[in-house]
Amino acid sequence: MASTYTPLGVEKMATGENAGTWGTKTNTNLQLIEQLAAGYQVQTLNAAGAGANTTTLSVSDGALAATLATRVIVLGAESAQAITGNKIVTIPIDVETWYFIKNSTSGAYTVQFKYVTGSGDSFTWSTTQKDWRVLCATANDGTNPDITEVSLTTTPAGSDTQIQYNSSSAFAGSANLVFDGTNVTAAGIVTAEGGQLTTIGKALVMGF
């Protein structure tokens, strides 16, 4: 019986297999496991033409070269890869793990991370999201695999000095409510329902 491999390339040696090379293969497996737990890889995207070109991330059985056999992946380049169209990055249908991934591209284009086939969810960086994301790849039944974001972003929404608020379970910033470190400024109409509007230490000035 020959050896088999996990979806991420770790060799599962059969009993009596690999006589004389067992030690070498075991060391490779241990390196793969270390890479899967804490590896770092930069993956240049397919930038040919101006279309939604696809970059396929594959698994190399029993080898250390696969981008997917790493925990941290930078899509693009360290100093940001210029792209001229929306990009797609695919992973094999049986891969199931989680990653720290950065969209390191420049240009007003999206980057989508998805399974190569199936009808499950994917994740797409918008044209302005050039940041890190934690993504969980869940193969499920192989028909409807999902890419789910584990949201850990600390980048505030809105513009500088805008106060954050909950907008449909996501952070947003309001141009009508800002704080400069000393004063809070509210633009437009402020309504106090069911109670009273109170100021402490300052007069409330109202103009009509």
The proportion of strand residues reads 35-45%
Residue stretches low in confidence (pLDDT < 50, at least 5 long) are none
Shape descriptor reads elongated
State the helical fraction.
under 10%
Intertermini distance: 87 Å
Largest sheet: 5 strands, mixed
Provide mean pLDDT, rounded. Answer: 86
Number of helices: 1
Radius of gyration: 25 Å
Number of domains: 2
The H/E string reads: EEHEEEEEEEEEEEE
Structural class per helix/strand content?
Answer: mainly beta
Secondary structure tally: strands: 14
Strand order of the largest sheet: 3-5-7-10-11
Multimerization status: single chain
Task: Explain what the structure shows.
This protein has 208 residues and is mainly β. The chain has 2 domains: 4-150, no CATH class; 156-192, no CATH class. The chain is built from 1 helix and 14 strands. It has one helix at 22-38, and strands at residues 4-5, 11-12, 40-43, 54-56, 72-82, 87-91, 97-106, 111-115, 123-125, 132-138, 146-150, 162-167, 170-179, 184-186. The strands form 4 sheets. A 5-stranded mixed β-sheet has the order 3-5-7-10-11, with no helix packed on it. The protein has a 4-stranded mixed β-sheet with strand order 4-6-8-9, with no helix packed on it. A 3-stranded antiparallel β-sheet has the order 12-13-14, with no helix packed on it. Strand 12 (162-167) and strand 13 (170-179) form a beta hairpin. The radius of gyration is 25 Å and the shape is elongated. The N and C termini lie far apart (87 Å). The mean pLDDT is 86.
